[in-house]
Write a structure and sequence with these properties.
Length: 272
């Protein structure tokens, strides 16, 4: 049985390479998902597919591509035009394999951010690497397709994700120094990581820092997106310390009186 979304991809001059790639036997679960009602497919365009294959990110036979492409399939229909401007939503993907996700059986999420004004473009990604769509709201009988110019990579473990972010390199280095990497890769974790501006030169050399101090920035109470947190909410950290959330409006968040400057960076086991 053919998928109407696959037919739409094949008929589109910018996504027909993806449609051809999805014919590979190893990718039958993706084809099956596109036959399921109420889904959204974030479709890499021809340039993205060509680059990914040329760079070895996707193999010619597709055997290593299943997890990556499952991260492109959302389990509900999301029309960009139906989202209010400047809205961010998190949607479950098909990706829930334990090799790539450590959320106690829950699937990995994908972040979608609707642009401002009348622009119905979306930014999609893991909060750290966001990609702007080139085409949105291609409607199929079973779901929606949005086209992106880059293959999305599912989020790595928290320790790896933090090492990739220059703005929190001091905290990431201390995680390694005090052997807390294993803790940061525990399932279902939210990390409140101080950025480099939060540290002085004295702070960086201060030997009183310890594993307990670093764990005071992490909670295993759940994976909390900024939108999930509420004013006056309290969270217990891995050190046993309690922190308090202040949220004067939907776009402003404070932790113990310190403003959060960037939020919603996803990891395979949680977010920060």
């Amino acid at each position: 049985m053919a998928s109407a979304c696959l037919d739409a991809l094949a008929a589109n001059d910018d996504t027909n390479l993806l449609a051809k790639y999805l014919e590979k036997p190893a990718l039958q679960p993706i084809r099956q998902a596109l036959l399921t009602p109420d889904h959204t497919f974030i479709a890499p365009n021809n340039a993205a597919m060509s680059n990914a294959i040329a760079q070895g990110v996707l193999s010619e036979d597709g055997k290593d591509a299943l997890l990556t492409l499952q991260y492109h399939v959302l389990t509900k229909s999301i029309l960009s035009a139906a989202l209010p401007a400047n809205t961010t939503v998190f949607v479950e993907t098909l990706l829930n394999d334990a090799k790539a996700v450590q959320l106690r059986g829950a699937p990995q999420m994908l972040e979608l951010e609707r642009m401002s004004g009348n622009d119905t473009s979306l930014k999609v990604g893991d909060g750290q690497t966001m990609v702007l769509t080139t085409e949105t709201d291609i409607q199929c009988p079973m779901g929606i397709v949005h086209v992106v110019p880059q293959l999305l990579r599912y989020p790595p473990p928290a320790a790896t994700q933090m090492r990739s972010i220059d703005a929190i390199s001091t905290f990431a280095n201390l995680i390694d120094k005090y052997n807390v990497t294993g803790v940061t890769n525990s399932p279902v974790l939210t990390i409140f990581a101080p950025n480099n501006d939060a540290w002085t030169d004295v702070d960086k050399q201060n030997e009183h820092y310890s594993a307990s101090f670093l764990k005071a920035h992490m909670t295993a109470m759940g994976v909390f997106h900024a939108q999930d947190l509420s004013d006056n909410q309290q969270l217990t950290m891995l050190s046993g310390r309690t922190i308090e959330i202040s949220k004067p409006d939907d776009n402003t968040l404070f932790i113990n009186g310190i403003q959060v400057v960037k939020s919603n960076i996803l990891a395979s086991n949680g977010q920060g």
